[in-house]
Write a structure and sequence with these properties.
Blueprint (H helix, E strand, L loop, with lengths): L2 H9 L19 H4 L28 H5 L6 E3 L2 E2 L2 H12 L5 H19 L4 E4 L4 H7 L3 H19 L5 E2 L4 E3 L11 H8 L3 E3 L11 E9 L3 H12 L4 E9 L3
Parallel strand pairs: 1-8, 2-8, 3-4, 3-7, 7-8
Antiparallel strand pairs: 5-6
Bound molecules: zinc ion (2 copies).
One zinc ion binds next to helix 3.
Length: 249
């Protein structure tokens, strides 16, 4: 083997997104790490809040959605936040590993494809970072996730006659919000009020569109809800949220 080929084959060895063990191509996590990854399971069909038991006919949505219906049509989160998936998402976000989004994509694409088609989505909008945080991190993890899912789903979506575009520029973060960790649902909502804006010159791109807002994790759904309010106020027809994982609060 030539030195160059050798170097390339070493570079592109597929590795577990959590522990870096070698894996088969297209496999996001090694078998050992995959054991700790759980599907969302019983959850509120509106906001994906995990529930002890499947929703009842008499109480089909969670108490919070009954009290204050979220502005988005639906929040989709295929996986439960925790285990090695939580570690992958932390590495993606804080360890300078944006390429992990590509490794995660196979776990997300079937769900992404389904929501895009069934909810008739026109535009995918990642939750933006404030420019200062973006400058520090070098990338927006929500944007790389959205781009990787879109790239992996595109052939299937084209076959299904469903072209789609990614718009990472129209929704902006107006201010850097303090971290949400440890805040109650009400505090999270207050923390985020007015955090987003739509660039006025780009608002026309959203008018009448059905938007999928993408983020890495939802805990109470407050970020997706606030992004939704901003997008609807700018003229979007409807918003659906999509996060890799949903934490219970
Ligand atoms: Zn592993
Ligand atoms: Zn709910």
């Amino acid at each position: 083997m030539h030195a160059v080929d050798l170097a390339l084959s070493t570079l592109f060895v597929p590795r577990c997104a959590s522990c870096d063990a070698r894996v088969a191509p297209g496999q996001p996590l090694c078998a050992t790490c995959m054991v700790s990854v759980d599907p969302l399971g019983p959850a509120c069909p509106h906001c994906a809040e995990p529930m002890e038991l499947p929703p009842l006919a008499t109480a089909p949505i969670c108490a919070r959605c009954r009290r204050t219906p979220p502005p988005y049509e639906l929040l989709i989160a295929p996986w439960r936040f925790g285990g090695e998936l939580a570690r992958v998402l932390r590495r993606l976000k804080f360890a300078g590993r944006p390429e992990l989004a590509r490794e995660l994509a196979p776990m997300l694409v079937p769900f992404f494809h389904e929501v895009v088609v069934t909810a008739a989505i026109d535009v995918v909008v990642p939750v933006p970072l404030h420019w200062r945080r973006l400058a520090g991190r070098g990338y927006n993890q929500a944007q790389v996730l959205a781009a990787e899912m879109l790239a992996a789903a595109r052939p299937g979506l084209i076959r299904a006659g469903h072209p789609l575009r990614l718009d990472p520029l129209t929704l902006r973060r107006r201010r850097a919000t303090p971290p949400q960790t440890g805040l109650s649902a009400a505090e999270r909502a207050r923390n985020l009020a007015g955090a987003f804006a739509v660039a006025p010159r780009r608002a026309a791109r959203l008018r009448g569109r059905r938007v999928l807002v993408v983020d890495d994790v939802a805990t109470t759904g407050a970020t997706i809800a606030e992004a939704t309010r901003t997008l609807l106020a700018a003229g979007a027809a409807a918003v659906v949220g999509f996060t890799v994982a949903r934490a219970g609060d």
